[in-house]
Amino acid sequence: MASILRNPNPNFPSLSKTSSSFLGLRVPANLSWPRRVASAMRSPFSVSCTLTREPVGADASAEYGVRPSSASQRPDSFGRFGKFGGKYVPETLMHALTELEDAFWSLSKDAEFQEELAGILRDYVGRESPLYFAERLTDHYKHADGGGPHIYLKREDLNHTGAHKINNAVAQALLAKRLGKKRIIAETGAGQHGVATATVCARFGLQCIIYMGAQDMERQALNVFRMRLLGAEVRAVHSGTATLKDATSEAIRDWVTNVESTHYILGSVAGPHPYPMMVREFHAVIGKETRKQAMDKWGGKPDVLVACVGGGSNAMGLFHEFVDDLDVKLIGVEAAGYGLDSGRHAATLTKGEVGVLHGAMSYLLQDDDGQIIEPHSISAGLDYPGVGPEHSYLKDIGRAEYYSVTDQEALEAFKRLSRLEGIIPALETSHALAYLEVLCPTLPDGTKVVLNCSGRGDKDVQTAIKHLQL
């Protein structure tokens, strides 16, 4: 069994003090590598848990297409961001990942591909998305002296399908066509990535299978219907907590079995290399547009960028353009669920430890035996026990700050933006909006804050009805 799990670099840090996984199954950290793999094949998912508003790592300091990594080399040639990332997958997937990376770099230099992608994002998705000055939200956060920050929303909710997810789905569908893959699989939590994948598969005539946790299917019934209406097969996952982690595990199992005919459109900046890099680059248009729009509107860069973080694709899409601009503060907001001390949350970067899940090393919610602590969030899209490896890296080097807000705080922000701006945000976005309550009183007058409005809240109305008395 040990031969099917591979460490891509013999110089990679030892895993003796971290946990690891095989297709999402957690294994004890105190076992030798061969015994860990054997244990993974018989180990059930375990459910237990521990979870501030304290910052983590706060002390340290082509228009629509793909581009090479910046001079700071994120990731390196082994697909790692510092010690995070890498490829921890069965040998059966190594060729597919290498083929995918080669195709990605080839298409980054392919003018025809770039032109086709740019045209679809413009004419089908509706880019560029507006950078909207939230005047009444800004007034809400005025200081006692009448000053305060200026709040802008990057309106990814206005994209076709209602979220940022379509950027990556379109690009990966085009890439799959170039690879000759006609069967597409994907995982989804809140359903927005599933809807985006089903949408592009309908657009390009591709077979589409979406894995979704049974619990998420219940709370996101509208998106399940949308996926099926678009022609996708939605497969319910009942294992574990029947949420995003379990859907991802099932999607990977499918890919292992059907790797020759199937392309996996992974929906976040997670998973084995090259996915974290590739998904980031396909979403980097968010940050590129933001820089250009900020220059047009006020003649400078934003001072602060804010985005919610589950796996982390919308945040990385906004942050990436500005990572090397050290005068721009990057803030990610996680889900504290019922509270960080409740044992029911999804604040991976705040409370997690280093381990391996779904093919990459990152921060995870895990117990002393390396078994996953099941996450909780009112938002299905943030209900994940891991996070993208680049976010883990940015936390460790102090380039980005990560905070968390509770379900109740997110619900209040959901209502606040609806009533102040006439914009109903996704519950994922509501977490980022909720953190403004803490952030805005600390900011000098005139500070330019850009918050990524990553999705619209139509899908979350039924969830909100159960919690908000209106």
What can you see in these coordinates?
The longest helix is centred in the first third of the chain and has 18 residues. A six-stranded mixed β-sheet has the order 5-6-16-11-12-15, with helices on both faces. Strands 9-8-7-10 form a four-stranded parallel β-sheet, sandwiched between helices. It has 470 residues and is an alpha/beta fold.
Radius of gyration, whole Å: 21 Å
Average pLDDT reading = 87
Net shape:
globular
Summarize the biggest pleated sheet: 6 strands, mixed
Proportion of helical residues: 25-40%
What's the quick description here?
The protein has 470 residues and is an alpha/beta fold. Helix content is 39%, strand content 16%. The chain has helices at residues 33-42, 91-108, 111-125, 135-140, 165-179, 192-204, 214-219, 221-229, 244-257, 275-283, 285-298, 313-319, 348-351, 389-396, 407-421, 427-439, 461-465, and strands at 20-22, 25-27, 80-81, 84-85, 131-133, 150-155, 183-188, 207-213, 233-237, 262-264, 304-308, 329-337, 353-357, 360-364, 400-406, 448-453.
